[in-house]
């Protein structure tokens, strides 16, 4: 389980690096997710100078890709894609070389391909909903 400093995003050149949470913190996070029936969520925590962990929220629609842009050594997009493709709510990433990098997606025509796919496979809204 990885953790990042939210305040770091406010700094022009943030120093973000992955850390391993203590097992008891990781366990409580997983219990919280199970209690709320969440398979995915971004948990905001803080660690104060006294070594106390503070819980702020769990966001079931949390955004995370910006962190991969800042800390490319952490393959967040690849991990999330594998998690979704696995269909396993208990998915755990095994160490391996990532195939999908967020920076590569941004450089590619992936955004255009994604939009084209959405237009092709998404039903257009009913005309009676929009009236000029």
Protein topology:
Layout (H helix, E strand, L loop, with lengths): L22 H14 L5 E6 L5 E7 L5 H6 L5 H11 L15 H6 L2 H12 L11
Antiparallel strand pairs: 1-2
Identify low-pLDDT runs.
1-9, 125-132
DSSP strand count: 2
The strand order across the widest sheet is: 1-2
Mass-distribution shape: globular
Largest sheet: 2 strands, antiparallel
Return the structural class. alpha+beta
Q: What is the count of distinct domains? A: 2
Q: Number of DSSP helices?
A: 5
Radius of gyration: 18 Å
Terminal residue distance: 50 Å
- Average per-residue pLDDT, rounded, comes to 77
Q: Tell me the fraction of residues in β-strands, as a range.
A: 5-15%
Q: What's the order of the H and E elements?
A: HEEHHHH
Tell me the helix content. Answer: 25-40%
Write structural notes for this entry.
- With 132 residues, this protein is α+β, with helices and mostly antiparallel strands.
- It has two domains: 1-62, no CATH class; 64-110, no CATH class.
- The chain is 37% helix and 10% strand.
- The protein has a two-stranded antiparallel sheet with strand order 1-2.
- The longest helix has 14 residues, at 23-36.
- The N and C termini lie far apart (50 Å).
């Amino acid at each position: 389980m990885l953790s990042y400093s939210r305040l770091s995003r406010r700094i022009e050149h943030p120093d973000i690096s992955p850390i391993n949470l203590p097992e008891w913190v990781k366990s409580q996070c997983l219990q919280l997710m199970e209690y709320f029936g969440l398979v995915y969520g971004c948990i905001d925590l803080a660690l104060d100078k006294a070594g106390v962990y503070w819980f702020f929220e769990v966001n079931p629609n949390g955004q995370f890709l910006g962190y991969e842009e800042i800390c490319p050594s952490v393959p967040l997009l690849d991990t999330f894609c594998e998690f979704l493709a696995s269909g396993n709510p208990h998915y755990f990433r095994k160490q391996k070389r990532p195939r999908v990098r967020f920076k590569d997606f941004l450089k590619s025509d992936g955004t255009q391909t994604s939009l084209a796919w959405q237009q092709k496979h998404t039903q257009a809204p009913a005309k009676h909903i929009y009236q000029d």
